[in-house]
């Protein structure tokens, strides 16, 4: 299965600006990308699930997977990578900021044989998907999970929705760092701890602070 991992190294993770400067945000984004690629590699190696990851980047990047540079909008670039009807090979799209993704969580995405498999993100987004039907296309603007579900219905395709905490958790805002420090298993939580982030227990939700 081809796996497309979109990545934007230029001006990454701007909503984390209150807690990380630009160079730190770039380093964090790259670390999360490496964790996603490592989870895919482990799945291929240990679970015998054949995956062929490719990073779809807005600029050149040196990483542990082939890179296709495409600076067009995310929806346009991903749609060009989806099945076009000429082959039966499915295509998965896994976002580069899924710092909690594990081989088991990704296997839950790849295992269903529906025409389209969607892994929703918190707040209405789509964090990962598998497309087998060439009639399916993506539209990442707005509430993309709702829109993708409608696109599947209009195409008359079958749909499977993956209920996964690890795939639903993407890192965009400071509050998201709590989940990574608390539940992460890869290099990203270690990067955050080395940068001085720790958990703070309050009377309400657990928060993350930086020393």
Please explain how this structure is put together.
The protein has helices spanning 22-46, 74-81, 103-110, 144-155, 165-168, 177-183, 187-194; strands spanning 2-7, 52-57, 67-69, 91-94, 116-120, 126-131, 159-161, 197-200, 207-210. The longest helix is centred in the first third of the chain and has 25 residues, at 22-46. The chain has a 7-stranded mixed beta sheet, with helices on both faces. It is of the alpha/beta class and 211 residues long.
What are the key terms here?
211 residues; alpha/beta; Spore Coat Polysaccharide Biosynthesis Protein SpsA, Chain A; seven-stranded mixed beta sheet; two-stranded antiparallel sheet; 7 helices; 9 strands; 19% strand; globular
Strand content: 15-25%
Overall form: globular
Q: How many E strands?
A: 9
**CATH class category name:** Alpha Beta
CATH superfamily: Spore Coat Polysaccharide Biosynthesis Protein SpsA, Chain A
Q: What is the radius of gyration?
A: 17 Å
Low-confidence stretches: none
Mean pLDDT: 94
The biggest sheet, with number of strands, parallel, antiparallel or mixed sense and barrel status, is: 7 strands, mixed
| Whole-number total of structural domains | 1
Number of helices: 7
Q: What is the helix fraction of residues, given as a range?
A: 25-40%
Order of neighbouring strands in the sheet with most strands: 3-2-1-4-6-5-7
Per CATH, the architecture is Alpha-Beta Complex
Distance between the termini: 43 Å
The ordered string of helix (H) and strand (E) elements is: EHEEHEHEEHEHHHEE
Which structural category fits the helices and strands? alpha/beta
Q: Which fold name corresponds to the CATH topology?
A: Spore Coat Polysaccharide Biosynthesis Protein SpsA, Chain A
């Amino acid at each position: 299965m081809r796996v497309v991992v979109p990545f934007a190294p230029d001006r990454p993770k701007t909503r984390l600006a209150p807690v990380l400067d630009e160079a730190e945000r770039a380093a964090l984004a790259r670390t999360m990308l490496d964790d996603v690629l490592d989870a895919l590699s482990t799945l291929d190696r240990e679970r015998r699930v054949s995956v062929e990851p490719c990073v779809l980047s807005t600029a050149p990047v040196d990483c542990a997977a082939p890179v296709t540079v495409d600076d067009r909008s995310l929806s346009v670039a991903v749609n060009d990578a989806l099945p076009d009807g000429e082959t039966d090979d499915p295509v998965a799209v896994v976002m580069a900021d899924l710092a909690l993704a594990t081989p088991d969580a990704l296997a839950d995405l790849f295992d269903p044989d529906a025409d389209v498999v969607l892994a929703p993100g918190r707040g209405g987004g789509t964090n990962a998907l598998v497309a087998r039907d060439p009639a399916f296309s993506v539209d990442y603007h707005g509430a993309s999970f709702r829109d993708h579900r409608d696109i599947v219905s209009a195409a008359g395709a079958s749909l499977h929705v993956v209920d996964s905490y690890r795939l639903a958790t993407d890192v965009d805002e400071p509050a998201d760092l709590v989940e990574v420090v608390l539940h992460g298993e890869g290099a990203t939580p270690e990067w955050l701890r080395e940068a001085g982030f720790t958990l703070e227990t309050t009377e309400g939700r657990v928060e993350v602070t930086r020393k």
